[in-house]
Specification:
single chain, 340 residues, alpha/beta, Rossmann fold, three-stranded mixed sheet, 15% strand, disordered C terminus
């Protein structure tokens, strides 16, 4: 059976490709002409040049494919022009699903995000039924993923679409890295003198990749499945990184309002200079919401695995170290003394 993977050169997509190959699927990857193909090097993957913004290229790439894993998306909280994130995430999803409908694809798995789901007002984990409140959609990324999921739900009335909502994946092949991976890289390079407290759900990216295959095999059409792991505060995540690496975690917690004001100044400066801010007002505002999620539905219905967050973070640390993301000088900084 042949599967087309969009976003195959990215973090989640590269792991989906490997999960498919391990299970003897034939894989075709939709790649842009200027894509960084490092994540696909050495793999027996057929490449189809195209772009999710080009409906015709997706039609051609889907020829002979029974499955579509639509994972292409812009995962960023700073995209200029802002319209680009909607062109890729929303209209790109519409194009992919329209092409799948025309080609008569047997099953589509759409990679949404927990960003498209609601959050409770307290710190109890949200699930697939938690309603979305407008005030929690605080960035173009979250808004685009919410709108794209609505497109997928509409197509599910006429196309066998299953939706998966990964939380905050960590692990190998995070080449950009993603905003979550950047936290780990900054920690390893001792660029985190302080932190902003928040909460997130950390999941092993290899579990997420397998979850896509399980959704294709067992998922119910038109249903959403949170592909999540452990709920951690930022302080707990940093403590795990300290245990794994021996590097001392930052202990200074930044107050919300001063750092929000600083983020506006930083964003304004970056808009003028054409640079990318390390923090944006949207990411700081999001930190006020503890993004805890319950993956119970995926565990029950799909058999979704639950690798401990500590193991997922360990694999991420090892991959970043092995692939040149950590300065050799970072290892000279103070470490937590060995208890022995």
């Amino acid at each position: 059976m042949k599967a087309l993977v969009t976003g195959a050169t990215g973090f989640i997509g590269a792991n989906i490709v490997r999960a498919l190959l391990e299970r003897n699927y034939r894989v075709r990857a939709l790649v842009r002409p200027d894509s960084n193909k490092r994540n696909l090097e050495g793999l027996e993957v057929e490449l189809a040049v195209g772009d999710v913004r080009d409906l015709g290229s997706i039609r051609r790439a889907l020829e002979g494919c029974s499955l579509l894993f639509h994972g292409a998306a812009l995962y960023s909280f700073w995209v200029r022009p802002r319209s680009l994130i909607y062109e890729v995430n929303v209209e790109g999803t519409r194009n992919a699903l329209q092409a799948a409908l025309e080609r008569g694809v047997e099953r589509v798995v759409y990679t949404s995000s927990v960003a498209a789901l609601g959050l409770p007002r307290d710190r109890e984990p949200a699930d697939e039924r938690t309603p979305v409140e407008p005030e929690t959609i605080v960035s173009d990324y979250k808004r685009s993923k919410y709108l794209a999921q609505q497109v997928a739900l509409e197509f599910a009335k006429k196309l066998p679409v299953v939706i998966v909502n990964p939380s905050f994946p960590v692990g190998p092949y995070d080449i950009k890295p993603t905003p979550t991976g950047r936290v780990i890289v900054d920690f390893l390079n001792r660029r985190m003198p302080a932190y902003v407290e928040t909460g997130m759900n950390v999941v092993d990216v290899e579990d997420v990749a397998l979850g896509h295959l399980l959704a294709a095999e067992k998922g119910r059409v038109g249903e959403c499945y949170i592909l999540g792991g452990e709920n951690l505060t930022m302080r707990e995540l940093l403590a795990l990184l300290e245990e794994i690496t021996g590097l001392r975690a930052p202990w200074v917690r930044l107050p919300y309002y001063p750092i929000l004001a600083a983020s506006y100044l930083n964003a304004a400066w970056c808009a003028l200079t054409g640079t990318v801010p390390r923090m944006t007002p949207e990411t700081i505002r999001m930190s006020r919401h503890y993004m805890f999620y319950d993956p119970g539905k995926a565990v029950r219905e799909l058999g979704f695995p639950q690798t401990p967050a500590r193991e997922a973070l360990r694999k991420a640390v090892e991959w970043f170290k092995a692939n040149g993301y950590v300065s050799p000088r970072a290892g000279d900084r103070p470490r937590r003394p060995d208890p022995g």
